[in-house]
Amino acid sequence: MSTKNFIRFLHKADIYTKTSLRNEMGQMKATWNISYQNVPCLYTPAGSSTGIRISPTSDEADYFSIYFNPDVDITYGSRIRNISTKNRGEIIDPNWYQIIQINREISFSGKVQYIQLKVKSVIE
After folding, report:
1. 5 Cβ contact partners less than 8 Å away, ≥ 6 residues apart
2. Which band of pLDDT confidence, cut at 50, 70 and 90, is reported for residue 80?
3. DSSP-derived 3-state class of residue 58
4. Has residue 37 got a pLDDT over 50?
5. What is the pTM of this model?
């Protein structure tokens, strides 16, 4: 990770990619395989849709922002899990997150400074 930027990556996360398998009944079943482990990131809450949840739906999922270095290979088909502290490795959030939006922030020099992901918790 050679790119320098002003963000201090205080957390780590695991990035998973999707693999689809066909079961005995002919239905497609998604499985998630780890592609990158302990990737430096910055994890910040962006808010939630409601304060109190009785039965969660997709509209009531919590939203977060996660910042990565620009050389991290991540797509909309990826999922993020096991967000932990950088130094001690204590897991802050073991939940699954799906990617809603990918923003590549451009610096004044014209290079990508960092990747900002808007993610929401997966409710299945």
Report:
1. 69, 107, 113, 114
2. very high
3. helix
4. yes
5. 0.77
